[in-house]
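dumping this here before i forget
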Amino acid sequence: MDSDLLEYLRRILNSRVYDVAIETSLERAEKLSQRVKNPVWLKREDTQPVHSFKLRGAYNKMSRLSREELDRGVLCASAGNHAQGVALSAKRLGCRAVVVMPLTTPRLKSDAVRSLGADVRLAGDSYSDAYAYALELQREEGLIFVHPFDDPDVIAGQGTIGMEILRQAHHPIHAVFVAIGGGGLIAGVAAYIKAIRPEIKVIGVQMIDSDGMIRSVEAGAIIPLQDVGLFSDGTAVKQVGEETFRLTRNLVDGFVRVNTDAVCAAIKDAFEDTRSILEPAGALGIAGLKQYVQQTGIRDQHLVAVTCGANMNFDRLRFVAERAESGEEREVLLAVTIPEKPGSFRKLCESIGSRNITEFNYRMSDTDQAHVLVGLSIQDHHEIPILCSMLEDVGFRTIDLAENELAKEHLRHMVGGRSRVNGKERVYRFEFPERLGALSKFLVNMRPNWNISLFHYRNQGADYGRVLVGIQFQKDEEQSFQKAMSHLGYHFIDETQNPAYQMFLR
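structure:
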């Protein structure tokens, strides 16, 4: 063992973290293990008192400051989790803490820091912007700067996670998957694991739009990023640290880049196994693990993912739920062109067969063709070309939109608008039971001469699906329509006179 690794091993073994941190559990994720055909273990750092591993490094650094230094007060820049670690450590050690956070920081995190007694200042759109402002404050006020990752004592504090993993694991570990922002967590974990069990792989995981560490390792020098994605705000770092880069380059075995959909799917995976909701950065390890398994095809190997944070804003959950199905390749979004004539919708549903429809959006705009946005449940991505081919065979031109960000982010919410060919359209709001065959049952009750001119449905996970339907029929057929819908048994409301419909859809 070289002297550098020996020094970090000494630092980790002597770290003072347990005055404020807990030894978190290493839990088997049963459902995820079955899905990826490998035993998966989660190192539950999301269960720390501040719901993040950052407490370890912050306290280890601050506990080594002299009383004189503590009396001057401490300062840090953070996207949120390090800030809470510093604030709680300052409260425990009896000193002032000034915390600079990006303007983009979720309010949940900034409020948590304030509640611990810290003086919060907001500046910039990323950690790097907040860091630059913090350095100005340091010069002005003479505070002691506590770096979130590029400090040997902070790195050593995070390294205690690696120490716990090896102590808790009762089976040979193939690989440990660790999220990377600035690199403090992976540097510490890798330092301990490679000192004690060098045969265990340490794999770093970054967002594809915040991959500064991977780019730097590939280039052999630190590469600053011009911009970083903000979905995973906890890892939105434009420039990694010099010390973390050095350790990561020398000790980490490999890297995985993941996208937003994969992280949303990983958040769902963690919830299904633990009933806890991870923040995006906290789920990176799981997302990387799943991608690594898919890329390598390994089986029956014990894999560990560090779930490093759970400070999630509640209002983000809608987006996460929306994108998780795509991320775990259980939903495909298709653009299907069908003839604009009665019976086409029914034929499309019959072609889809028993597959669960998760989304159905359409607005009549042409007398010849109809363009329908359809979401379908699938088992994996291998079904997509088969499904497209099947629809093409029955005469429906089909385009796969699974990787189309415009469609996933915006188009699915915008299908609609006014129509110049909607004729004697009436609009009804239905409640469909969320079960297979509900849409087909509705279409079977439609007469051939009744034309659907608008259809909007998205599975929201409730017992009943909310569906908006535009239907064209002659005025003397209204009684027949009402009778048919009553026979259907679905609750519905006539919204034709609704001012929102009159203004935006009529």
